[in-house]
Design goal:
Two copies of one chain form a homodimer. By secondary structure, chain A is α/β, with parallel strands linked by helices. Chain A has two domains: about 10-205 and about 335-395, 3-Layer(aba) Sandwich (Rossmann fold); about 230-320, formyl-coa transferase, domain 3, CATH 3.30.1540. The first copy, chain A, contains 18 helices and twelve strands. Chain A has a six-stranded parallel beta sheet, with helices on both faces. In chain A, helix 1 (about 20-30) crosses helix 7 (about 160-185). Strand 6 (about 190-195) of chain A pairs antiparallel with strand 12 of chain B, so a sheet runs across the interface.
């Protein structure tokens, strides 16, 4: 938790990953993020992984540090409350994050009629409003076709919801960018962030769109790094390490550490090329190089290789399971200052992460857990809408809030 | 190209994906992004994919709309120029994006000594400064262990550099957030965004850290969606479609479209459960459900299924290769208003993407290609450092800029 966004208020009416992760990033940088859900929870309230009691570890992971109000969104009076929250006055507010469809009661037009300077960030599936999730978009842009062992033609879905995660962070950038403009010009903005457009634009930015137009689809190549040197290798003690060498220095350090400098020089002499000067040639001729590396790894224990790689400035990683990492990797988890062990709404106590960014020289503030559903309903109604305790009591009596 | 960040200036001394994609996002939202490279190009200047001439489609994809200055960074006078650019005066400046190590001449301390309110965003590998790239971090957090067919134990690296992409977008959010604070308090910030911490925090936010602590590693499950219903199926005409049903409505729409409502109700009656009410049960009992779906897909052509899915509100996608998508998918590429066909520095003319976000009601401005290396050297030296043509000429004569 840092204070970069102190004094801002974001109202979040969103579910699943992209929208809520955007809200999470705001909350962890100090903004007051108010999430509204329908009474009993939205469509992500029971999303797996869950505890034996059915409490969602996913929901409580993605909603840390937010405030929660539960509203009966099935009735017009409840919907009016959600609109009133999204458009509540104040320079610090007017920031609305959602994945409701544009055709819903939470359209930008409906909100802007109440608050003209509102900034709406709408995370979407397809840009045309058709439903999509990370995995359906990923199939459509061909990533599963490129992923997996070269000897197996089956498409491989990613497990990490990469487009959702990118969507949350990009939406957060778009919202802060629109706020910078609003602070100068007073203008609001209606911003749409479709997963389909995130995927299409990313593949353009990475050069992949140009590549397939020039040379057709890239063949599947398993774990081989495209266009330079990189792959996984197995050590004498049966550990699997990945090494990557893109720059000349990474390459020379790797060769020196594995005592392969002379053997590789012999291949260079035979072919009349320089692997050091042209990273792409390490990829073109990888079938010549890989056996040398396989033998070098197979002859050495990981306990010898790992410190030698560190000393040689090699870029490497060890394959481990997430459980191994969470319980045994000091840099990632067990001694990572991002993590604080706190009690979550499920009743479980476990370590959870604050913001991924570190602000050097600024203290990390205590990590706040996710709210219980509706934990802050009364407080939010009083603060944002100015309702007194009698009015709030009537909303409870009518079953409009919980 | 939109104008949200008009009037801002970001100096970028970065390479590869995370840093340059962050700069790209700023440029495509209207900021003046000045990238400096060493004369002849940095370590990513020849990164694959490349044209037959060796021009990098990757480099020109990630640097669209930026200005370029080439400096001899091997000499103290050249380094001094880079520091002077990063710390150039003006409220619009003082935003520096880098992946140089902190121990380099571009340390935050060195820059802040010249401009106390500078905001430095440093994209890193490991948080402790050790080298890492997307793929080595991914191996360490266990994603390759979870990815791929359940009948094959080999770890599967992702092809999409998901952590790099997330890093670029999150770094952009962090920089705009720090700028919002600076506009209020005048403070600068030193922000570190390590790929290792992005991965660790994301797996916390998604509930995966809590999950492995509670129940150990999640078994590999191929393309099956975890915790709800989703998988790829093959149609009568041998097309492969993915369907996902998380909400009750997605589930009922899917069953109705495939005429499976009665068959699934029979399983529910037998087991005494409701798949509609508990998405997790669709996952628990997927071995019972999948054969029904396999048969239903195998009996229908994709030309029948796709419009039926759309009519039924089903969330689905079709597996296609990137080349198929780029050349044939109207929504993603061929008729997507994000894309404009422009001439790039490689000399090739092809469609490339503007910002992934759409600002409704605001025109997309013309897409600017990547610069040629050093294309704006003289202009940048004049504008940022106030050098006259004589001084600039002397820098060229000394070989310090190109």
């Amino acid at each position: 938790m840092y204070d970069l966004l102190n004094g801002l208020r974001v109202v979040e009416g969103a579910a699943f990953i992209a929208g809520p992760s955007c809200g999470l990033y705001f909350a962890q940088m100090g903004a007051d993020v108010i999430r509204f859900d329908t009474i009993g929870g939205g469509p992500d309230y029971r999303r797996w992984p869950v505890t034996p009691n059915g409490d969602s570890l996913y929901w409580e992971g993605l909603n840390k540090g937010k405030r929660s109000i539960a509203i009966d969104l099935g009735r017009p009076e409840g919907r009016e409350l959600a609109v009133a929250l999204a458009t509540a006055p104040g320079d610090e507010g007017g920031l609305f994050l959602t994945n409701y469809p544009e055709r819903s009661f939470l359209s930008h037009a409906a909100l802007a009629a109440r608050r003209p300077d509102i900034i709406t960030v709408r995370v979407m599936g397809w840009a045309d409003g058709s439903p999509a999730v990370d995995y359906t978009v990923n199939a459509a842009v061909g990533v599963p076709d490129m992923t997996g062992p070269a000897d197996d033609p089956r498409p491989v879905n990613h497990v990490l919801p990469a487009w959702d995660l990118l969507g949350g962070a990009y939406a957060a950038f778009a919202m802060t960018s629109a706020l910078l403009r609003r602070r100068t010009t007073g203008e609001g903005a209606e911003i749409r962030v479709p997963l389909s457009d995130l995927a299409a634009s990313s593949l353009s930015h990475l050069g992949s769109v140009a590549e397939v137009l020039a040379t057709g689809d890239r063949p599947r190549m398993g774990n081989d790094l495209f266009g330079a040197f990189g792959r996984d290798f197995v050590t004498a003690d049966a550990r699997r390490l990945i090494v990557v060498a893109i720059t000349p220095r990474q390459w020379s350090g790797l060769l020196a550490t594995l005592d392969l400098t002379a053997a590789v020089a012999a291949i260079e002499a035979e072919l009349g090329i320089s692997f050091a000067q042209d990273e792409g040639l390490r990829f073109v001729h990888r079938a010549r190089l890989f056996p040398l590396f396989e033998a070098a790894f197979a002859a050495r224990d990981s306990s010898v290789l790992k410190p030698a790689f560190d000393a040689g400035g090699v870029t490497w990683g060890e394959y481990q399971t997430l459980h191994q990492a969470v319980t045994g990797d000091a840099r990632l988890f067990t001694a990572n200052p991002l993590f604080q062990t706190i009690r979550h709404p499920s009743g479980l106590t476990y370590p959870a992460s604050g913001p991924a960014a570190t602000l050097a020289g600024e203290p990390r503030r205590p990590l706040a857990p996710a709210p219980r559903l509706g934990e802050h309903s009364d407080q939010i109604l009083a603060e944002l809408l100015g309702l007194d305790s009698g009015a709030i009591g009537r909303l409870h009596d009518q079953g409009l809030v919980a």
